[in-house]
Amino acid sequence: MTLETLSETACFGGKIGFYKHASSANNCDMQFSVFVPPQAGSAKVPVVTFLSGLTCTEENFMVKSGAQRYAAELGIMIVSPDTSPRGDDVPDDPDGDYDFGLAAGFYLNAVEKPWAQHYHMYDYVTIELQYAVFDNFPGDASRQGLCGHSMGGHGALTIGLRNPDIYRSLSAFAPICSTLHSPWGQKALGYYLGADRSTWRDYDSCEVARNYSDGPAHSKILVDQGLADAFLEEQLKPQLFEQACAESGLPLEVRRHEGYDHGYYFISSFIEQHLQHHAEILGA
User: Fold this and answer.
1) Taking Cα atoms as reference points, which of 173, 184, 178, 177 lies closest to residue 257?
2) Is 48 in contact with 76 (CB distance < 8 Å)?
3) For residue range 201-241, what is the model confidence (pLDDT) as tens digits?
4) How far is C-alpha 247 from the geometric centre of its chain's CA atoms?
């Protein structure tokens, strides 16, 4: 796959870059960012992909999280893709809101028109981004982890649990734990997938966890949630994910933190521990 380099610069002894390529999955150009740690100069390194939330691009996590310092110490490559297809021909929210359409791809494959032509973020992350990363960067494809925030937390949990052959470690910050019971999720899945809610289950973290039958995919799933998060009660509902994992026997640790909200002050406070979580599982 041919990449266009938008920018590259040294960072904590490694390199951070932003790239663009033509996407056949989303029928548009897509952008993503990569932090390559200094250890990649001598051997392939584990990779953690971070899926961002509503309104974000491939830049937010790399600019705001402070993850590069810890990734450089641990020898972990970080990949952060954009959150949706983009372009003049890509349809946006018909209501003009922030929670659907551009920057709100929900990491699924849309089947309803006009979204089905472009919105295939599930295939993009699990197939196309794999080629973009491992054909061009010194990452070890056999040692991959997945992390995400909010909408991206939903994406990380559903994609990770559905693809344990790809992703060995999982974590999330303030994830949308049940799209079936979240106004954000209900709106998005209704547009992207249609009115038949039985088709939504593959993109509901709780349903995927509850019906998981392949044995423990990961030694432990780590979830952090701020208790001052304005979206906690209406949109996120971590207690539902705890119940689903308990039913199927999936190992899970949910940590709740007083005073922390939904933003990047929260993520930057605990990103070191998340990367350590992945490093222990992936053998960094």
Assistant:
1) 173
2) yes
3) 999 999 999 988 765 456 799 999 999 999 999 999 999 99
4) 24
Q: Is 271 helix (H, G, I), strand (E, B) or coil?
A: helix
Contact criterion met (CB below 8 Å) for 112 and 65: no
Query: DSSP states of 168-219 as a string?
Result: -EEEEES----GGG-HHHHHHHHHHH-S-GGGGGGG-HHHHHHT--SS-SSS
Q: Which residues are tagged catalytic?
A: 150, 229, 262
Please state the pTM of the whole predicted model: 0.97
Token pair 């423990």 in the structure block, residue: 216
As to burial, measured by CB atoms within 10 angstroms (0-12 exposed, 13-18 middle, 19+ buried), residue 140 is middle
Segment holding 132, helix H or strand E: helix 129-134
Query: What is the CATH number assigned to the segment(s) 4-282?
Result: 3.40.50.1820
Instruction: Count CB-CB contacts under 10 A for residue 239.
Output: 13
Contact predicate 279/76, CB 8 Å: yes
**For residues 141 and 165, is the Cβ–Cβ distance under 8 A?**
no
